[in-house]
Design brief:
Layout lengths: L5 H10 L4 E9 L1 H8 L7 H15 L5 E4 L5 E4 L4 E10 L2 E10 L6 H13 L2 H4 L1 H7 L3 H13 L3 H7 L2 E3 L18 E5 L7 E9 L5 H34 L1
Parallel strand pairs: 4-6, 6-7
Antiparallel strand pairs: 1-8, 2-3, 4-5, 7-8
Helix pairs in contact: 3-4, 3-9
C-alpha cells in the first residue's frame, strides 16, 4: 500500500467498528452564497459549516461525546468541540488526505477559520502535517497500535488528536458524499448548491450516542444557525468590504 493511503486505510479500519447512520436535509443556501461571493476576502463553505456546527455542539453536549470501549463501554464528554477537516493535497506526485484540526471553531471569526484553512490547504505539507506524515510512514501494526491507544486509552487527548466531529466535502468538485466515514461521533458533509438554491447537508452519526429524531432536530437548528448568526457575520464582512472599496 502506498504511504499516501495509509491513514485513510486506518480510518476505514476503525470506522467499520462504529454503527453509523446518515441523515440529510435540503438547506437553502443561495442567499448566503451571494453574500459570500461578494466579499473581498474569500470565506469558504467549510469555514462556514465548521463554525455553525460547532455552535450547535456548544449548545448540545451529546455532540461533544465519544463512545469508548476500553476498559469498559462508557461515554466521554468533552467540554468543548474540536473539528477536523479533510484536506486533499497533491504531494510527492500523489494524492493525499490530511486532517486539519480546529479547537472550538464557534469562538473564532470566519476570517480566522479561513486563514487556518488556507494554511492547511496551501502550506508546506512537511510543516503543517508533520505528525501525520510521520505516522503514515510507520508499519501498519505500529500505526494501528497508536490509533487504538489514541481512541481508547485517553479522553481529553483523544479529542485533541481526532476531534469531536469531522467535516468532509467534495461540493467544490460538483459532487457529494452520501455517507462519509469516520470514527468520531458525527461527520458532517454538504453537497453543491442545486438549481433551486438548496444544498443537501448530511450528518453521519454514531447510533449508540444519538438517534434519528435528535439528528433531524440538529439539522433544522443548523439551518437556522446559518441564516441567523452566520448570515449576520457575512453581512458585517460585506459592509467592511464596501467601506474598504470606497
Amino acid at each position: 500500500m502506498p504511504q499516501s493511503r495509509a491513514l485513510v486505510s486506518d480510518i476505514l479500519h476503525f470506522h467499520q467498528r462504529i454503527p453509523t447512520c446518515a441523515q440529510d436535509r435540503l438547506i437553502p443556501l443561495a442567499d448566503l452564497d451571494e453574500l459570500r461571493v461578494r466579499l473581498r476576502n474569500r470565506i469558504s463553505w467549510p469555514a462556514i459549516f465548521l463554525k455553525s456546527f460547532s455552535g450547535l455542539a456548544a449548545q448540545h453536549p451529546r455532540l461533544r461525546q465519544t463512545w469508548r470501549n476500553w476498559p469498559w463501554p462508557h461515554i466521554y464528554q468533552h467540554e468543548t468541540s474540536w473539528g477536523t477537516v479533510a484536506i486533499s493535497r497533491r504531494f510527492r506526485d500523489d494524492d493525499w488526505l490530511f486532517w486539519g484540526q480546529f479547537e472550538s471553531p464557534e469562538r473564532s471569526s470566519l476570517e480566522e477559520i479561513q486563514t487556518k484553512l488556507d494554511r492547511f490547504s496551501n502550506g508546506h505539507v512537511e510543516e503543517v502535517f508533520r505528525k501525520q506524515l510521520l505516522l503514515s510512514s510507520l508499519p501498519r501494526f505500529a500505526r494501528r497500535l497508536i490509533w487504538w491507544w489514541q481512541l481508547n486509552l485517553t479522553g481529553e487527548k483523544r479529542v485533541k488528536r481526532t476531534g469531536t466531529f469531522s467535516l468532509s466535502s467534495v461540493a467544490g468538485r460538483g459532487a457529494e458524499i452520501q455517507h462519509p466515514p469516520g470514527f468520531v461521533t458525527s461527520v458532517l458533509t454538504f453537497g453543491p448548491i442545486n438549481s433551486e438554491g438548496n444544498s443537501r447537508v448530511t450528518i453521519a452519526y454514531d447510533h449508540r450516542l444519538m438517534d434519528g429524531a435528535f439528528v433531524a432536530e440538529r439539522l433544522a437548528e443548523l439551518e437556522a444557525e446559518l441564516h441567523s448568526s452566520i448570515r449576520a457575520e457575512l453581512l458585517t464582512l460585506q459592509t467592511l468590504t464596501f467601506r474598504k472599496a470606497g
